[in-house]
Amino acid sequence: MCARWFGLPGLDLRSPLITGLSLSLLLRADTASLFALAGVIAIASKFLLRLDGKHIFNPAGFAIVVLLFAAPGVWISPGQWGTNIWFAALLTFLAILVLQAARRSDIAIFFLGSHATLLFARAWWLGDPAAIPLHQLQSGALLIFTFFMISDPRTSPDSRLGRFLFALAVALLAHWLAFFLQMRPALYVALIVLAPSVFLLDAVLPGRRFAWASPANEGAS
Predict the structure, then answer these.
(1) CA–CA distance, 203 with 199 (Å, rounded to integer)
(2) What does the alpha-carbon distance between residue 116 and residue 207 come to, in Å, rounded to a whole number?
(3) Distance between terminal CA atoms of the chain?
(4) For residue 149, what are the domain limits?
(5) Mean pLDDT confidence for 25-54
(6) Strand locations in 17-122, DSSP E?
């Protein structure tokens, strides 16, 4: 409906599919209407919140943050799946990145490495055992955020250096929000707050702009 309303031909269904999967895997709510509202907010943001041909915010992340602060009965389950399934999911997501060659696998690795380094550094500073940061990393929500949200090609910087700086900034802000302000959805808030900086990074560090390609073009490339 939005594609017809805004006159955008050639709708690629992979984009709304990824957004829908992110919402269904991450978001928890008391009523079905809140899930529907999340979908409306996320898809509408793809068309309304744009600048220079790119989304300003990750659509799923934007919908989650809006509902977390605006609607009661909405939350995120950070420890979903358990340890065994978490490890299987990690291997699966890494395999997907390698096989699809999405040109955004680097930012996922940058962020996960930055986030893990900060957790282990904090544990070392406080004298905590390594088991604590290891447990903090074993989160299904963290994997989905890393491999499907911060690595979104339409909302991440175009250059590799820009993606590294953005991933590091999100990890640092999320760490501060989580451990100094005791904010539970720190990752998602940090991603949305820093999203406008992507355009500054693109201006200072230009790179190749991502565009969804048709299956035929992908096969020819």
Answers:
(1) 6
(2) 27
(3) 31
(4) 12-210
(5) 90
(6) 27-29, 50-51, 54-55, 74-76
Check if the beta carbon of residue 25 is closer than 8 Å to that of residue 139: no
**pLDDT, tens digit, for every residue of 139-159?**
878 888 888 788 888 889 999
How many domains, in total, are found in the chain? 1
Cβ-proximal residues to 51 (8 Å cutoff; 6+ apart), any chain: 199
How much is the pTM?
0.83
Q: Is residue 193 part of a domain?
A: yes
Question: Could you tell me if 167 and 107 are in contact, meaning their C-beta atoms sit under 8 angstroms apart?
Answer: yes
156: closest CA among 43, 56, 60, 22? Answer: 56
- Whether 130 is in a domain gets the answer yes
Coarse DSSP helix, strand, coil percentages of the chain, rounded to the nearest 5 percent: 65, 5, 30
Residues 6+ apart with CB under 8 A from 98: 105
Question: How many alpha carbons lie under 13 Å from residue 120 in its C-beta half-sphere?
Answer: 9
